[in-house]
Amino acid sequence: MRAVAFYRPHARLVVEEFELEEPRAGEALVEMVGAGACHSDFHHVDGHVTPPVTPFVMGHEGAGVVREVGPGVRGVAPGDHVVFSIDLMCGHCRNCTLGSPTLCLTYERTATMPDGTTRFRKDGAPFLHGPATFSEWTVVHEDRLVKIRGDVPLEKACLIGCGVVAGVGAVVNRARVEPGSTVAVFGCGGVGLNVIQGAVLASASVIIAVDRVGFKLEKAEEMGATHVVDAGREDAVRRIGEITGGGADYAFEVVGFPSIVRQAFESVRPGGTAVMVGVPPTGSEVSVDAGELMMSRSLIGAFHGAARARVDFPWLADMYAAGRLKLDELITRYRPLEEINEAFEDMNRGVTARTVLTFV
Ligand SMILES: [Zn+2]
Ligand SMILES: [Zn+2]
Prior knowledge:
Layout: E1 2-6, E2 14-17, E3 19-20, E4 27-36, H1 39-45, E5 56-57, E6 62-69, E7 81-84, H2 94-97, E8 120-122, E9 125-126, E10 128-129, E11 137-141, E12 145-147, H3 154-157, H4 163-175, E13 182-186, H5 192-201, E14 206-211, H6 214-223, E15 227-230, H7 236-244, E16 248-253, H8 258-266, E17 268-276, H9 290-294, E18 298-301, H10 309-321, E19 331-336, H11 340-349, E20 354-358
């Protein structure tokens, strides 16, 4: 069985042979159908984020079919179509109960199964892994899987679990953008395009997309942006002020740099809200003008779209089936697992929105 292994930053990812153990209690064996090459994975490759342990099997965005379950599994059954959640959700801790399962208190973020062991082996020795969606098969705890309807193609539905919910959820779950609002979006990559899509679903009146890459600004318009600003050519904060007449109601930072979080904050009106969606460099800090903060501006984070995966994933699948959520437009191309490096190269050259790895 083949999977993508990460060994160290600034090195090419390698596809290697692994052995996979049977699912134990509470776990499921999933045959993967599609896995999105997400920027968060690449953050390890370019050193933007330092993984606590290496090496490990990569991938967190994915969808597939449950083929076998371990003892005691109640949430999924063989044959179910499932989308992977980035976060394990116990469903009964305080945060899960309050509706914030991305902040589940039961599970730690580790590159192992919740019990500290691994199901992947290489040459007989245990090999670290998270959800390991960049693999032909994987074993995960059922608390990471969300069953969706069977008629949405899984090579498209895989995006729901990270890129789509991170963007749409930041708008509807976290910021709770009201109809008629003005919204600015800094960064129009895989997640940023979904912030735009979320703003459309929330009936925002003005949606301003900011990026430096022409292809991404074109995609932003396709997703529903009403205005585009090329940050390489004009001052985005000033332009947003002009378009909105004094600042946006909401501005989303979807790049992961403190300097752009600051720009997002500076582009909201007094009383407005800036939302940090991007993944910041490890150990970085954000500073903003205290006087502007005092003017009832808010600066908030939106971790994984504040997703309620068991509610949001089926909803998003329904929205796609009803023609109200764009997934096809987000996928620029499909590639086999072996072309993971090329998928990230395309992403960095700004010629793809998302590449989905397939397993046929
Ligand atoms: Zn992701
Ligand atoms: Zn929990």
